[in-house]
Amino acid sequence: MQDEQCLVQKARDGDKEAFAQLYESHVDKIYRYLVLKTGNKIEAEDMTQQVFLKAFQSISSFKWQGTPFTAWLFRIAHNLMVDYMRHKEKRATLPLDEPIAKSDSNPELMAERKLDMEQVISATERLTELQRGVISLRFTSELSIAEVARVMGKSEGAIKALQHSAIAALRKSLLVGETQ
Description:
By secondary structure, the protein is an all-alpha fold. It has two domains: 1-95, Orthogonal Bundle (Rna Polymerase Sigma Factor, Chain: A), CATH 1.10.1740.10; 97-180, Orthogonal Bundle (Arc Repressor Mutant, subunit A), CATH 1.10.10.10. Helices cover 75% and strands 0% of the residues. The protein contains eight helices and no strands.
């Protein structure tokens, strides 16, 4: 935490290398959160870059308030996600096809993985917005219960309860899917 505070202070003072280190430390977590929320890798990549662009532009106004720097990044990502959902209905888009498999990869294994991922994404879409947020932050972004509570503005107990109900709902949904 101390190292991160030092990096943030350097970035606030205009050190671009310090901001680059912050970017490298957090880009994967932000991307995983956004890809789960959007269900679209390309949109998530674009939004991840927007998160860090906004963070870079406003890093000078960042103040430590007892929460980790990632909470601030996730708040930016959440706000972008709200805007995205608001405008999603207005945009008509068609998904691009998945990239063609490499010749040395196993097509059967790739097909199984894609099917498994589609089942998980489909099951996740049936969760409430709060449950989806907890699952995304806990497991795709690898945040602790305490960090998720700070990001979502809820108590740790509420996050534990949301996580428990979300996992139970996912388990039930995936088991029902297997029997069909």
